[in-house]
Fold this protein.
Amino acid sequence: MKKTNILAMGALLALSCAAYAQDHAEHPHWGYQGKGDPAHWADLEAANSACKLSKEQSPIDIEERNAKKAPLAPLAFNYAAGPAEMINNGHTVQINLPPGSVLKAGDDSASLLQFHFHTPSEEKINGVNYPMVAHFVHKSADGKLSVVAVLFKEGAENKTLAPVFDALPAEGKPVQLASFNPADVLPANHAYFKFMGSLTTPPCSDGVRWQVLRTPVELSKRQLAEFHKFYKMNARPVQPLNGRVVQVSE
């Protein structure tokens, strides 16, 4: 393993642990049930006002018949294998990745920061949830966020994600992965839906570019059950489209 990668992951781990502690110390508790559920996020603190006021919130229900076919730029996943670390942040299990993986779409380029899971899938397709979704979060040089959603259906064991689902961490206790290639999580077909939306968790900031891959990948029933030991449900309900256009690659 390269020394630069080890140092990068060490710095990332320190930052993620600090962010975890700071988030839990400074912000009102939000979640998916009870008084901190999605219906109350905007009331927890002023910083979450977009959860109620924004007109381009995520997730959404994608109706294929209403999606507009468009010559969208192909998604080029220039991802690299390297060390990674998993952390259970109290809302999901997140895999933090070292610098070096990049998503390109035409002239746009953004660096992959992390991916995390929601169950069931936050996005609906034709009114139906999948059992799980992974959100790959990217950030461009000018600070804009771009998220790629990978849907999961129940089926065969996912060998790429076996090291993840076999060692899901307890809250606040990171687990190191010696080498992980995020590209191996993706389906072979990269056709996608595209729309503008928001973060699906507080503060629900909008201006996020979303790309939802049309082809799901498989997870086994056992792997889903392992995640459900920590989170039986951690998905925000779908939000109004408010006139937004959903495009689909030709």
